[in-house]
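Data deposition worksheet. Section B asks for the primary sequence of the deposited chain exactly as it was used as input, without tags or linkers unless they were present during the calculation. Section C holds the resulting structure in C-alpha cell form. Section D is free text for depositor observations; keep each observation to a single sentence. Incomplete worksheets are returned to the depositor.
Section A, Depositor: J.P.
Section B:
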Amino acid sequence: MSLSSSEARWRDALEASMKDFLSAYPAGAADELYDPIHYLLSLGGKRIRPVLALAACEAEAGALDAAMPAAMAVELFHNFTLMHDDIMDEAPLRRGRPTVHTKWSENAAILSGDVMYTLALTALEGTPAEALADVLRMFNVTSKEVCEGQQSDMAFETRDNVTVDEYVNMIRLKTSVLLAAAAAMGARSAGASPERVEAWYRYGVNVGLAFQIQDDFLDTFGESGATGKQVGGDILSDKKTLLWLTTEANEEGRKALAPWVGVHPASGSDQGEAKITAVRAAMVAAGADAEAQRRMAQHVDEAVSALRTLNLSPETSGWFEGLAQHVISRSH
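Section C:
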C-alpha cells in the first residue's frame, strides 16, 4: 500500500474515531457548549498534527489504534487553542467562516474551549497502558508551553526590543512543540524507545518552526481566498514576526515602519489597507521575505536530518520528507 493511500486511510480513521468519540457530546445537547465544538471541527483544517501522530506510530510498526487517542487529543487541543486565540486576536473569520465568538459569544467560546481541552484529556485515556504515563507527560508539558508561547506572542505586540531569537523561541512554544509532541506521542504509543521518540520530536519541532514562519508569511503575503483568514492582520497589530523584525533591523526598513508603529486601524478601512501596503513594501525592500524563505529551508533540512537517524524505509522516509517540504510550499 502506498503512503498516499495510507494518508487517506489515516484521515478517514481519524474522522471516524472523532465522530464516534464526540457522539457522547451531541450538538443540541447544550446549545452553547457542544454546538461550537462541532461547528469548529466541521470547518475542516489540515489535520496535520493528528495525521503526523498516526504516521509516526505506523512508521514505528505500531497499530493505528494505539496512537488514535493521541491523535484525537492533539486535534482537540489544537482546536481549543484556535477557539481561544480567535477571541484574543478579535478575529472575525476562521477558515473562511465566522469565528465561534462571532457566531455565538465570547463567553460561549471561552467555555466551549475549556470543554475541548477536557475532551482532549479524556481522549488520551485510551492510550496503551505501557505508554500512557509518557504520553500524558508530553501532552501536559506541551499544553503549558503552548500557553507560554501565546502569552509571549501577545506581549511582543507592545515591546519595541524583541529579538529574532526571542521570536524563534516564541514560535517554537506556540506552534512547533505541538507538532513535535504529536510525532513523539504517536511513536511512543507504538512502543518506540526514548532515543527514537527524541528523534521524532526533533523532526516535529523543525517542521513546526518552518510551518509557523510560513503561516506568518501567508498572513502578510497570502491571499484571503486561499487562507480563509484576513490577510495583513499581523501587520495591523504590529505583531513581531520574523518579517517585521528583519525589516526593523534594516535602517531603511525601520524608517519605513516608524510612521505605522502604534497605528492600529480597523481591518478593511482605507487606513488599514494603506498600512498593509506600506509595510509589505518595506518588508520586501529589506529582504525580509527572502530571509523568511531561507530560514524555512534551513528548518526543513534540520527536520530531514533528524528523520534520517531513524533509518526508515525509503518510501516511509520520503513521505515524511515530503510533508516537511509541503509545509513551506502551501498556500493556506
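Section D:
The first helix runs from residue 3 to 22.
The mean pLDDT is 93.
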